[in-house]
Amino acid sequence: FPFPDGRMGPSKPGTAGRIIEIGGATTHSYEDLLRIYADIRGLKRRFFNLRAAQSNLDAAEAAEITQQYTVALNVKQQYFAVLAARESESAAVKQFEQAEQQLRAASARVAAGAATRSDSLRSAIAVGNARLALLTAQNSLRTADASLSRLVGSSEIVTAVTSDTLDTGAISMSEAELLRLAEAGPVVQQSQAVAS
Q: pLDDT below 70 — which residues of the chain?
């Protein structure tokens, strides 16, 4: 800060940091100006830190919403996986029953002399394969039930309701409504909060 005599700094030795009278006007020493400048820089830094903290808070809130939607999606997917496993088990039961009927019929034909022993063996193999498919389907249902129970945080086994396999219909939504929902989604909000 130049003084009226053109020098920088205090006008007299030993006056650093003091108010100096020059020509009736009050002025500050160079050290005082540096302190003010440092204070302004500190305020700017605090302002930017505040903005960064607010952006981080916005990003964290959007991430929390994203996590809630992700958990809901995982639960719904596992719920329908239980329904699919139950339908697979039902199909495997029917396949097993049919294979047993074919084995009884093949055994009766062999006893009557109308079929060869290999027909009976093929039917026995089909029963074994059907039993294996049934066990696999039952295991898949138990695994799906356990996964669903874990996702909902239950210590008891949770399963899907069989009546939920009915068609629930389509959701009618225009393309503009869908686009608006997508643009207001939590992932977009989180990305915007991180970018700002």
A: 1-30, 33, 164-170
